Amino acid sequence: xxxxxCPECSEEVYVDAEIEQGDEVxxxxxxxxxxxxxxxxxxxxxxxxTEGGEADRDEFGIYDxxxxxx
Length: 70
Ligand SMILES: [Zn+2]
Hints:
Radius of gyration: 19 Å
CATH architecture: Single Sheet
CATH topology: Rubrerythrin, domain 2
Largest sheet: 3 strands, antiparallel
Bound molecules: zinc ion
Structural class: mainly beta
Distance between the termini: 63 Å
Shape: elongated
CATH class: Mainly Beta
Number of helices: 0
Number of strands: 5
């Protein structure tokens, strides 16, 4: 299994032999999500968490007021 170095904690990260550029791997040591930015040699980059855009917000928070009944 090829390895690369985690940009966050500098530990070795094992990556799949058939990994492709743009794939995501997770560091076993610090559990950072890393994106493959290069393959020869394998380079990993910290995934930018500020640019996520995933629907992970609590959209139903407004209904969370059951104590407020008449
Ligand atoms: Zn790490």
